[in-house]
Design a protein that fits this description.
The protein has helices spanning 38-45, 64-81, 90-94, 128-135, 160-172, 191-198; strands at residues 2-6, 11-18, 21-29, 54-58, 85-88, 103-110, 113-117, 123-126, 140-143, 152-154. The protein is of the alpha/beta class. The chain has two domains: 2-91 and 157-190, 2-Layer Sandwich (Nucleotidyltransferase, domain 5), CATH 3.30.420; 97-154. The longest helix is centred in the middle third of the chain and has 18 residues, at 64-81. The protein is globular and about 50 Å long.
Length: 199
C-alpha cells in the first residue's frame, strides 16, 4: 500500500493506493497553505501508518513552498516508519490521463511560460510557442486546465492517486529509495532569483 501526497499547486490531495487501485483520495484546498491540513487528511484516510509499504510525494514542478511541504511530510513519515519514499513528477502523473501513444503534458507556469515534458522526457519551463516548435503539432496535449489555442485532453487537478500508482509501480519493480534522497523538481528558479537577475 502506498500513501501519496500532492501539495504542489492550488488544489492538493492525499491518497491511498493498493494493487493498482486508488482506495481513497481526499482533496485539499490550499488557499491558506497545506501544512495545517495534512494531519487531518491522514486521519480521514483512516489507515494505520505501519500498514503502509511506502510513501510518495509530487516533487514538482509547482509552487516552491507547496513542493517543499509535500516532500518534507513524506520524508518525515518515511523516515519515522522506516519505509521508502518516492518522488514523482507532476508531469509524469498527467501522462496517466493521455488517450493516445504520443502525448505532451503541460500546464501554466506563469510569467508567460508553461511547464512541459517533451517527447524525450526532458522537463522544461518555456513559452508555449517554443514547446510547439520542439514537439510539432501531431501530439496529444494533456493539462489541468484549458490552454488557449490548444485542444487539450483534461486531467484532474487532484493527482495524488496518480502519484501513488506510479510509486506503486516502482515498488513492484523492486525500487526502494531512501527518504534522504528525495528531492524537488523545480525546473525554474525561484521568483527571488528571477527578480534579482532582472534587476
Amino acid at each position: 500500500m502506498i500513501l501519496a501526497i500532492d501539495t504542489t499547486h492550488e488544489i492538493g490531495s492525499i491518497a491511498l493506493v493498493d494493487r493498482g487501485i486508488v482506495l481513497k483520495q481526499v482533496e485539499l484546498g490550499g488557499q491558506d497553505g497545506f501544512g495545517h491540513l495534512l494531519f487531518e487528511a491522514l486521519r480521514l484516510l483512516d489507515v494505520p501508518l505501519n500498514e503502509v509499504d511506502g510513501f510518495a510525494a509530487a516533487r514538482g514542478p509547482g509552487t516552491f513552498t507547496g513542493v517543499r511541504i509535500g516532500l518534507t511530510a513524506v520524508k518525515g513519515l518515511a523516515e519515522a516508519m522506516g519505509k521508502p519514499a518516492y518522488g514523482v513528477s507532476n508531469l509524469d502523473a498527467l501522462l496517466r490521463y493521455k488517450t493516445k501513444p504520443t502525448a505532451v503534458p503541460l500546464y501554466d507556469a506563469r510569467r508567460g511560460d508553461v511547464y512541459a515534458r517533451l517527447l524525450n522526457g526532458e522537463e522544461v519551463v518555456t513559452p508555449l510557442a517554443e514547446v510547439r516548435a520542439l514537439v510539432g503539432e501531431e501530439v496529444e496535449w494533456v493539462s489541468f486546465a484549458p490552454i488557449e489555442g490548444l485542444e487539450v485532453t483534461p486531467a484532474p487537478k487532484v493527482i495524488a492517486g496518480a502519484i501513488g500508482l506510479i510509486a506503486e509501480e516502482r515498488w513492484n519493480s523492486g525500487d526502494r529509495p531512501d527518504p534522504a534522497a528525495l528531492d524537488a523538481n523545480y525546473v525554474r528558479r525561484t521568483d527571488a532569483e528571477l527578480n534579482w537577475r532582472e534587476a
